[in-house]
Amino acid sequence: MINIGVLGSTNGTDLQAVIDAIENKIINASIKVVISNRKNAFILKRAENHSIKARYISHKNKTRNEFDQEVTNHLKENDVELILLIGFMRILSNEFCHRWQDKILNVHPSLLPRYAGGMDTNVHEQVLVNGDKETGCTIHFVTEEIDGGPILVQKSCKVDPNDNVETLKQKVQALEGEAFIEAINLITNK
Length: 190
What we know:
The chain has 190 residues and is of the alpha/beta class. It has one domain (2-188): Formyl transferase, N-terminal domain (Rossmann fold), CATH 3.40.50.170. It contains 6 helices and 7 strands, in the order E-H-E-H-E-H-E-H-E-H-E-E-H. It has helices spanning 13-23, 42-49, 64-77, 94-99, 120-129, 165-188; strands at residues 2-7, 29-36, 54-56, 82-85, 104-108, 134-141, 151-158. It has a 7-stranded mixed sheet with strand order 3-2-1-4-5-6-7, sandwiched between helices. Helix 1 packs parallel to helix 6 (165-188) and helix 5 (120-129) packs across helix 6 (165-188). The longest helix has 24 residues, at 165-188.
């Protein structure tokens, strides 16, 4: 069994997919702590709803390294072996990336390397503006290079002529949970 820590700043839709996969014994893991830099992020409530430890850590008036060290302390206290970034809207310090090398997975809402560095709906908007016929999501290891770490899993879907930013976001988000589950299984079954 692998101990997971989750960092998130938003609703944590993908967290629900991971929780469900654990409960249904699809993945052999335990989520030890969910940490958010936003006090009212629903990801914290989602964790609490499943009796998972939820921690708010403010990043205000702290250097990036100070914030990342505080996060590291909580992850270590909870024996975390793998970190999932689920809608985490902060760039991690180089020190954090080195400390947790090969132990941090991020989900990106495109088929990397396309739209690397883009976030959330901006990525879907670019897909539509560029007339892409296919989009999807990527689970990759986190390195100092934003969205540049080794790719573990990609899932794709068609872009339909009537798609808009919201419908594309929903399609891609549905793939993200599946991709996280596949990535966790790849890591735990090594």
